[in-house]
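Figure 3 (text version): structure tokens given as input.
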């Protein structure tokens, strides 16, 4: 079965075919580093991570680029207001470069804890100003952009396809609707490529003046074109990026190169919290540290954020996080049982016993992921495999193959403890002591050691082939 994705540009599912067979160039809109990335932000980044992992599962060589926006992202879509990073810097009375460095490092730390694979490049906007100015100059020369008092705007009426991604029509983008009127604009929807403000803390000199800084949209075009080339396979982001950010990226990139910018556009839906919108005023803009403070592992949050289809609404609550942790205990248990059976412990007499259940689980998992990353169905395949293992023992040969499958599936999902965890020497000593107590029929001592270990999160199960332990 081919990999099918929903293309936000065509508004339909399409079979994925990279420009160059076997190689995928993917650009992901990354964080604006003025504050800590919250769990809603990470839904989008985790979606991109699962997408990359699945492409690699299918055998593609993926080159992934995720930008770091460290200048130019204004407070609204109307080329108005303060730069988000400068606003934070003024609020904290700190240097904006220091602010961006701090939150960039926090983003990397959180991403690592959530098992997000590092992108091959993390270009920063401030390192690509010359590339932005070169594109802007070209757009001006070609008549797609115009200069007004040191600022440069893209003329959306010159790009025939403007609005196709978002479904907006120029005639509907009236003044006072999605964008505000600025007198210097020829059309209300024209967007800034280059801004000018003598009071701006982060600024660059150019032929347009001494106090310039880039608009938000031009940054991604410059970084994508430099690091991935004039045509890329996949561009991702959150649904809030569709308009005006991605719409503007398409217009300026294709006007500059004369070629299609991205073949497939994929967008993740917003994350809801407690059934509603996440907002600072409600106090529910949670970050990874909030999750860890409640005693949850980062992988439980990863599970909670990828358990549903990326194009469907997803709700987060603390109860759902607890349920996610319990679900992972079940998947960890699946891996543990497969390890033991592969070693011949609790295995069926027939080495190939249970092969049909494994084949069914593998087929369901791959079919689900090939259907536009249907992670909910993919997880279902793993849980069904666990049910099959609990209902009837697998043969050692099948268990080994099943363990290989679970390990490969986890290479995509990255939430299961597949490999055996080493126990602390003291824990191993007490497990052995309990076995000795049971052998000597000292049931009180055996129960005491069992309860003591249980209080520390170690669950012991007695089987015909010996004691089996797992984490609670």
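Below: residues designed for each position.
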């Amino acid at each position: 079965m081919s990999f099918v994705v929903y293309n936000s540009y065509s508004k339909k599912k399409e079979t994925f075919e990279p420009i160059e067979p076997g190689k995928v160039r993917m650009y992901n809109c990354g964080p604006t580093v003025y504050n800590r990335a919250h769990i809603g932000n990470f839904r989008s980044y985790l979606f991109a991570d699962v997408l990359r992992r699945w492409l690699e599962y299918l055998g593609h060589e993926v080159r992934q680029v995720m930008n770091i926006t460290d200048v130019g992202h204004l407070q609204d879509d109307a080329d108005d207001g303060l730069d988000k990073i400068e606003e934070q810097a003024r609020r904290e009375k700190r240097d904006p470069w220091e602010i961006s460095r701090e939150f960039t490092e926090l983003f990397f730390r959180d991403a690592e804890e959530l098992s997000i694979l590092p992108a091959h490049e993390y270009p920063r906007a401030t390192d690509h100003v010359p590339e932005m100015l070169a594109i802007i100059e070209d757009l001006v020369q070609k008549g797609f952009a115009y200069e007004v008092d040191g600022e440069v705007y893209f003329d959306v009426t010159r790009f025939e396809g403007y609005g196709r991604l978002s479904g907006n029509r120029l005639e509907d983008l009236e003044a006072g609707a999605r964008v505000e009127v600025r007198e210097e604009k020829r059309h209300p929807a024209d967007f800034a490529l280059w801004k000018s403000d003598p009071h701006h803390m982060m600024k660059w000199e150019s032929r347009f003046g001494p106090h310039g800084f880039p608009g938000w949209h031009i940054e991604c075009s410059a970084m994508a074109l430099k690091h991935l080339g004039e045509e890329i396979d996949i561009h991702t982001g959150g649904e809030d990026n569709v308009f005006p950010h991605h719409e503007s990226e398409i217009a300026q990139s294709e006007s500059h190169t004369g070629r299609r910018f991205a073949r497939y556009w994929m967008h993740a839906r917003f994350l809801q919290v407690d059934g509603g919108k996440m907002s600072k005023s409600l106090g529910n803009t949670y970050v990874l540290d909030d999750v860890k403070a409640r005693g949850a592992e980062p992988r439980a949050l990863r599970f909670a954020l990828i358990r549903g289809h990326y194009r469907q609404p997803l709700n987060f609550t603390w109860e759902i996080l607890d349920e996610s942790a319990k679900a992972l205990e079940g998947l960890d248990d699946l891996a543990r049982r497969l390890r033991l059976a592969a070693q011949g412990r609790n295995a069926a007499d027939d080495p190939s016993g249970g092969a049909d259940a494994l084949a069914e689980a593998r087929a369901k998992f791959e079919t689900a992921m090939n259907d536009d990353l249907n992670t909910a169905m993919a997880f279902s395949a793993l849980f069904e495999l666990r049910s099959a293992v609990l209902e009837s023992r697998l043969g050692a040969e099948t268990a080994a193959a099943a363990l290989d499958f679970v390990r490969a599936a986890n290479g995509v999902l990255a939430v299961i403890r597949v490999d055996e965890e080493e126990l602390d020497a003291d824990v191993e000593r007490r497990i052995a002591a309990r076995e000795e107590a049971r052998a000597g029929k000292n049931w009180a001592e055996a129960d005491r050691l069992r309860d003591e270990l249980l209080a520390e999160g170690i669950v012991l199960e007695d089987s015909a082939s010996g004691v089996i332990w797992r984490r609670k």
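DSSP finds 14 helices and 15 strands in the chain.
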